[in-house]
Structures are given as structure tokens and as C-alpha cells.
UniProtKB/TrEMBL annotation, chain A:
<feature type="domain" description="Roadblock/LAMTOR2">
    <location>
        <begin position="1"/>
        <end position="76"/>
    </location>
</feature>
<keyword id="KW-0813">Transport</keyword>
<dbReference type="GO" id="GO:0007018">
    <property type="term" value="P:microtubule-based movement"/>
</dbReference>
<keyword id="KW-0206">Cytoskeleton</keyword>
<dbReference type="InterPro" id="IPR016561">
    <property type="entry name" value="DYNLRB1/2"/>
</dbReference>
<keyword id="KW-0505">Motor protein</keyword>
<comment type="function">
    <text>Acts as one of several non-catalytic accessory components of the cytoplasmic dynein 1 complex that are thought to be involved in linking dynein to cargos and to adapter proteins that regulate dynein function. Cytoplasmic dynein 1 acts as a motor for the intracellular retrograde motility of vesicles and organelles along microtubules.</text>
</comment>
<protein>
    <submittedName>
        <fullName>Dynein light chain roadblock-type 2</fullName>
    </submittedName>
</protein>
<comment type="similarity">
    <text>Belongs to the GAMAD family.</text>
</comment>
<dbReference type="Pfam" id="PF03259">
    <property type="entry name" value="Robl_LC7"/>
</dbReference>
<keyword id="KW-0493">Microtubule</keyword>
<dbReference type="GO" id="GO:0005874">
    <property type="term" value="C:microtubule"/>
</dbReference>
<keyword id="KW-0243">Dynein</keyword>
<dbReference type="GO" id="GO:0005868">
    <property type="term" value="C:cytoplasmic dynein complex"/>
</dbReference>
<keyword id="KW-0963">Cytoplasm</keyword>
<dbReference type="InterPro" id="IPR004942">
    <property type="entry name" value="Roadblock/LAMTOR2_dom"/>
</dbReference>
Amino acid sequence: MTELENYLFSGIPIRTTLDNSTTVQYAGLLCQLTMKARSTVRDIDPQNDLTFLRIRSKKHEIMVAPDKEYLLIVIQNPCE
Amino acid sequence: MAARGRAPRYGHPSAARTAGTGTGAPCPRSQERGAAAYYGPHDALLLARPRGSKPLRARHAGMRSFSARPRGITNSDFRPRGRSADWPPGASILARPVAVTTAERQGRGGAGPRRESENMSENLRSSKTTSKSPKTSAKKQKGDKAKQSSKGKRKQLDKKDEVDLSMERIGHPEIFPLVFTTKTQEIFNCRVDEDVTEENCFKLIKKEDIIQDLKTRAAISDFYPVKRVVLEYPGEELLVVFDANFQYGQNFYLVASEEAKENFLKPPDTAEEKEEKSEEEKEGTLDVHAYKRSVRKPWVSLGSEKEVEEESVKGYVTKIKYMFSRARRKFGAPIRFTDRNASHVKDSYVECTSYQDTTFSIKLLERDVGVQMVPKVKEASTQTKWTYPKNAATQYSPRQLSNEEMEESLSSEKLKEFLTSVHLRMEIALQQNEIMNAFFDDWKALAEDETSSGDKSDVYLKAYQSFTDPQYLKDRSISCVRWHPTIYGIIAESATQQHSDEERINLSDKLLLQDSVIIFWSFSDPIHPQLILQCPHDIYCFQFSPSDPNIIAGGCFNGQVVLWDISKHEERLQNAKSITVGVKKSVVNMDSASVLNLLESNDTSEVKTRKVRIQPSYMEDDESVTEPPLVRYCATSSTEGSHKTVITDIHWLPDHFEVNRTGTTFENRAEICIQLVTCSPDWVSIAKFEDESVKKTFLKCIENCPDFKTETEDNTIQSFCSLILFWDIRVTKLPGKLSFEKEKNIFDMPPGVPDTFKHLALSWKPLIKINLCKSDTEMEYSPIKICLLEQHHHYKILDKAQSLNKPQALARENPYAKMSVPSNKPLKVLESISNNFFVGTKDGEIIYSDWKIKIDSDSGKPVSKKPSHKYIIHDEAVNTVQISPFFKDIVLSVGGWNFAIWKEGVTDGPILESSCTAQRYTTGHWSLTRPGVFFIGRDDGNIDIWDLLKKPHEPSHFQNISKSMITCISPWIASPKQQFLAVSDDSGVLHVLEICPILSQSSSNEQANVLDYFEREVKYLKNYEKYQEFQAKERTEKELETQMEKTSAATKQKTKRDGGARKCRL
């Protein structure tokens, strides 16, 4: 089971398949986390960049594909 | 002191002081002296050791005035070893005085000139003991003499050339080197290395002795060269020093001055030492030996001569000479002065401008700069501002795009680009998860398998509690055990007589007198039953309603179905639990419980007064408040419609369907369990009546019983009973309502009994009757256990228990209270519901059948279907037919000495059949949490635990529980980590055992494995059958072949014989 979300750079959701409050929460938190992860990668090697972020949790897996302006966040319930 | 006193005498006390204390810095005095020293540089060697600065200053002040005006000199040239004794009196005149600076401090005034000797003696006097004063006074006189003699000596020196003898040339005029022959040494006791050594080199020789020696030995005497010196010596004793190093050229030298002698003997020390010494001397302990002679060292240049050179003033500058001349005639001429401008005439004035003189470049060598650190001090002050705490709140809402903006950004090219770039990455990641779990912990899974299969502990069933009651359960066998579906730790059990059926029939009268009860126990109280349900007869089986745990249906020994409603007592059961849970809560609840008890006692008293006929035992009971409440049944089925014998199994039909009279399944609108199914091994009674009249009366008697099927044949009556009955607990439309009312009047319910099932009363009749006819004969099977394949949805125990704990849950309405007459509205037929069931019979057969009623084409009567399959597997009555809680088509049957596992749809027989064991199996139950585990009770009180995955051929564990036969097993999941197994035995004891985690915790893929196992078994079974068929076929073929062979052989023989015959014939 997968859920799809699209986000704008600043953490404002553009399109979502989740309910509003969950979307806002995911958007705000994951946007920050992704920015942090990106800066970490770039700090280590300035020529490097973050291409994909996977967060494996007990319940599901959150996958983030970052780009210059947009983030694509997919929440997947694996192994079902 | 002395200097100050004497200073005026010399006229330049300040000069003297400056010279004495100065460090050679240029000063007016030295310049003055420099001017004086114009005549040439002077060298002055002052070899003296200071004894005190003041006398010294005085001394050299005097010396300066006397000597050839020495220029400034540093003291570095004067080695400390130098002695004033080196300076012979008056020698300073001969020597070239160099400088008088601080060096004078060291200078011992010994070298001082005559005029100074006075001061000297004064100095000595001041620094030395008074005891020496006479000596010094003598010295003073001698000093005067020496002064005179030095003048004379000078004259003599010129004459006699005595200068050679003394060490004047090296600055020690008072030292006269001498050669002492051994003879002389002997005379004066100064033998080398004996009397005198290098260390102790001094020898004082009396003047008289020397003079004597001079007289006796005259010119041979070693003192002859210094005869004059000796004679002129002022003191009594002369000092002779052993010159081991030949410092002065000879082996001895004579010290010719008293002062030098003193200095030799008393080596100069620091001022303190001197003071000490003076003190010692005061005490009269003049220690001559303490004097340590120092060796004179040659002068080493350390740069002082340069300084001296620098300091000395030399006439470098050519003197300017001015000559003024005037004509003679102009002398005395009158002078006329006129004014004129100076600049008009050349050379009218001479200008002397200042200029930098290259000859004088004085470097600034030293500068005094004073710096004092002063910390900067600054005053400052602050005052903190007090801010008031204020309540403030901010609320913000997430930013969201408007629809237009969203549209815009969704349709933007950027987003498309982004999606195309990201799309592949995301898809790969999603696919990875779909394909396999990359984060699956194989290690953990491995460990899990090990723990589940490993034999960690031997205790598989741990005794937790056991219940028995002496009043109700004495010598009784527990027939059925059921856990309360929702309340923790509540268990109910029914008891029956231990007698066999035959005995029971014989004792049937007595039995009525005995209490037949269902007892509720709680974990919190192992002694007192929580609730007692009263029964008309012994109960063989009972079930809680899946919809409402307060409704209990039981099957009686006499074939009646009984219903109880314990909703009034639910609170009590809850409280029994809460006692263990919390004290506070129990206090409140106990109050209500006691109120309830009081109500109960009131009820009983009412009952007592009414003296209801059917409750003789109830009357006799002395009910107290603490006694558990007795609950009367609220409905029984009519004896006519019920089973004729003991009901061995009872089940509630699942709440999602209902059946009608033809066995068709319909949807259940109420979604509560309203139908029951019971089975009883009703027998076929065959009575042969000899007498026709008796037969007739009997037939008359049974005429009213529609269930009885009668057939007459040679005076034999066979009576058949319904074997499996379906009941509906709702109000049924009975043809005669009057009879219902009538019955109601007759059997007046005692008060206090819930009227939930009032409508049923005794008129309750079964809905469907199913006869299990044997296909070939008219005989019927006698079912003991029934198992419907359509099962209840399992209880969600935890959820329900939680909801029940809530107060509103307690107050909720009884679902059965709303029960209404089934409406005429056509119900939807549910085709998906399976009508099939398994039945275990008294004879050990397992029957698979359908409950649908078929209309017999011949008679037009409804006839139940004939069983589709039957198998004889068990050797005795089947006691358990149970569907697996994990698989809808797997059924366990237990009976006799073995058990079997069946799968619906597999018609060839059981998929698993155990071998016979020594002990009879009395009951069995599936594990609720592990698909491959089930428990089987034996008649020797043991419980076999089977784990099909571990050991399919024998029980994986067995454990003894009781001495008597196990009658019933019932597991219960108390919590995910705690499971109980209730085991009842024949002696009336109920054991509650805790199932160890190994047996209760299933591994992750156990269900799949068990399913796989069952499927393998099915395959095996099919293959086996095929093989058997094949074998049978083969066998027949073989037989045929052999037959064929035989016949062929016979014909061959025949032909052979014929041939032979023919041959013979030929």
C-alpha cells in the first residue's frame, strides 16, 4: 500500500493523497529533515548531493526524493 | 667614622668619598684629576683586602692625596687573593699608581704612605681586639720609624742594590725570597715537609734568633742578604713562609712588614667572619692556624686595562694658539670709539657657532626611565529592568496554496521535470520493497525458530490454581468447563454424577434430590464459588452466548435445553476480578455487591415463603449473605420436543445467519446468536409387545409425540428420536397460543428470575430435527458431538473486556431484551454459509453431513439428508469433534484410544490418524494460539500435548494433572503473554494451568508450516489410495495372468502330450 504526496520546496503541500493534518505534519517535518540531510551530504563533500532519502520505521517506510524546488514523499507500508 | 673625622684634613672629603664609592663614572673630580694627570698615565696597584669600607675610604683618600693622583680604575684588576701585605710601606712611591676607585675598598692600607699609617693603625685598632693595641701602638712608632727608614732605605737601595732582593718589581716590596738550607731549616725548625708544608707554610721566627744566627754564622747565614730588613723589622717575630711553588723564586720568603704578616696569618674574611673573629679574639683565642693561605695568582687581563686606557686622558687635541700683536707706537694712544655696523666691515666680529664635534661622540649609555603601572579605574553602574510576566499565545496555521496556485504549480514545467527525474528513483525504491523486505532480520528469525523448538524447560503446564467445592462437587464428575468469554479469571463448570448410564437410570429418583449446578469460580477466590446456576438436571454441556456472555445455554441429562440469564450478577463477577485489581474500586463495588446480595437474600426469602415445589434443595439451603447467589434458569425446553436422553453437545449458531425450518440459511438481522444446535445420542427403542392391548395403549401414549416414529411389525414398536435439534430462542409462532398461556400459568416462574426468556417457558420446541439415518438400514446414528463447519468469529477478548470494564458498558442493554418476533419480511438467503457439519457418534463413527431438509418425493414429508460420508475410525464413543481455530476445514476428533484429524473435502478419510495408545483418550482441544498444537486428556489423568510440527507420531510432551480421568479441557488466552488451560477431572476438581510460552507463543510462520503439513498429508493420502488401487489392480492382473498362464500351460501340456502322442504315433 502506497501513499503519494507532492510538496513544494518550502514545505507547502501541492498535492496529497493523505488527509490535511497528516499532510501538513509530514510536509513540515520531512522538509526540514531532508534539508538537514542534504546539507550534511553537501558539507561532507560539496560536490555531492542528496538524491534519495529512505526512512525505515516500524510501521512503514518513508521515501523522499528531493530536488531543487520540490520534494516527493512516498509513505509505503512494506511487506503487505 | 675615622674618614669623616679626618676628612677636613685632606680638604677634599667629597672627592674622596666620590672616588671611594663611585664606579668610575666621569665626574668633576676625575676630570680635575684627569687634568692633573696630564703628565702621563699612572699605575697604582693596591693589593689589599678590605677590612671595612670606612677606614679604607679614609685610607685611600689619604693615599690619593699622597700618591700620584690615580685615575679611575675598576676593581676587577685586583684579584681577591691579593694581599695588602704585598704592598711594602712606601712602595707606592716607587710604584706607579694607576687608579684609585672602588678598588681601594679592597686595598689594605698597608701600602699606605707614612702619613697614613697612623690612620691605618687606628683602623686596625678599631677592627681588632684591644689586646693588640699595645702592639699597634708599637707599630705606630715603628710606622713612624719605617717612614723615616723608607726614606733612608731609598737612599740605601740606590747604594746597595737591595731592590733585587725584595719583590718590589712585582709589587711586593715587603716580600724577600730566601734560600733556606737544610741547616738553617733545622735551626729554625722549619724543615720542609716536616715543620712546614704547602698547606701550613708559615713559620714565625723570633727576631733575636735571627740576629743570633746572623752573629753566629755571619755571612753563611741565610738571613744575611736580608740582614738589614731583619734588623729594621719593628716586630718581635718575623714571618717566614715556605714557598713550595717557588712563587718568588726561592724555597722560602720573608715577610718584612708587620701588617703583611698580620694579613698572611689572618686571611681576610667577610665582614661577618671578621666580626666573629674579632669576638673570638676578644675572648683571647687568636687562632693562627685558622689562617688559610691563598696562592697568589698572576694577573689575568679581563678587559680592565682597556677601561683604564679609555679613562686615561690623553692630549689628543692640538692646542690652539692665539697671538695678539700691536704696534709699539700704538701703545698708549688715545682711543676713539665710533659706532658702525658690524656687518659693514669684514672681520668685524667673530662668530662662535655651536657645532657637532666629531672628536667627541658621547654615546648615551644609560638612561633612567621610570614607569609605574597604575590600573585604570572606571566607575559604571547598571540597573536591571524588571519585565512583567505576561500571558501570550500564538497560533499559526500551516501555509497552504490556493487552488489557482496549486493548479499553476501542478501544471508547471518545473514540476514535470522534477517528477520525471525523481520518478525512476522512487519506483526502484518501491519495487525493492515489493520484491522483498531488505531489512528482514534473518538472524532474529533464526533465533525465534530455535527458541520455539528448543527444549528449554520441562514444565509445560504450570499449576496455577485448582477449584473444588465440597458441597456441590463431592463425588461428582465435571462434565463441562467454559471460561467466561470476557471477564478475566472467571470460569464455569458443570458437574454430573460419576455413575454410568445404567446406574443413573436406576438411581433416577435419587438424582432429583441432588443439586445440579453450574459453578462459577474466580481466580481471586479459590474457595468460594462466585455464582451458582441452578439446573433442573445434571448438565452435560453448556455454552456462553457469543453475543452476550450473560446468556448461557446448557444441555440437561434428561434432554432439556436450559437457558440462564446472569446479567444481574455480571457486576459481581466483575467485582470478583476487581478485588485483585484494585482496592479502591472494590470498596465501591463491594457495596453494590452487598446490596445485590441483600436483594438476593430477599429473593430467597420470598422463595421460601412461596415454597415452590420444584426447589426442595433450594429451600433447605441456609443462604447467608456471603454465600454465592443461586441463579435459577429462566427457560427450559418442553420435555416433549426435547431430546429423550442426555444432551451431549450444544452450540450457538454463529450470529451472522439463521436457519429456517427447512435448514435454509438466512441472514441474521439482529446479529446476535439466537439459535442453538444440540445433539444427543438418542437411541432407538425397540419394544416388543406381546400383548396387543399394551401396545395399543403405548401407541396412544406416544401419539402426541410427533417425533416418535412408530412402526408396527410383529408387535414390535421402534421408536425413533430426533438426534440433532436446532433451537430458536425467539418467540416462535406456535399453532396453539392458548396452550402457551396455559403452560405459563401452570409453571409460574419464581420471582427474581429474569424474564428474558419468559416466552419460551416450557413450550420451547426445536426448530429443525435432523435424523442421521444410516443409508442401508433404518438405523440411525447416535451423535455425541457435533461440529458445525460454519464457526463463530472468534472473540476479541481484550477489546470486549475493556469495553465491559467501562461503566457504560455495564449499563448497556441486554441484547436479548430487544429480541423480537421474526418479521415476515423475506430474509436474504445466504448461499455461502456451509450447511455441513461433522458428527462424532457413540459408536466411534465420524459422519459428515448436511442439515438441509429435503422433501421426500414419495411421502411429501420433510426428510433430512442422508449423511454423505461416514468413517469408522474410533473404537469407542467420540468425545471431541472440534474445528481448528486456525483452519476452517480442519477438524480434530478424539475418541477411544486414538484421535484423527480431518479435512473437509477430503473424502478418503482422516488426513491424520494416530495409532492406538494404551490409555483411553477422554477429551481434546486445539491450542488457541498455535495451529499445530492440541491437548488431549487421558483417562489416567495425563494430558498429552501434541505438536504436529515437532513430532507427528507421538505427543511431544505429556504431563500428569490428576489421579482420575480428565473430563474436559478448555484453554483461554488471558493476555498475549499469559494463557491458561482449564482441566477438569472425574473427581470434581478443576485445575487451572498456565501454559508455558513455548507452547503458547507461535512462531511467525507456523500457520503456513502447519498448512503445508496438512496439505502434504492430503497428497500422501491420495497417493496412498492410488497406490492401493494400483496394487489391487496389479494383483488382479497378476491373478489373471497366472490364470492365463495356467490355462496356457495346460493347453501346452495338452499339445505337448498330443505331440508326444503323435511322435509316439510316428
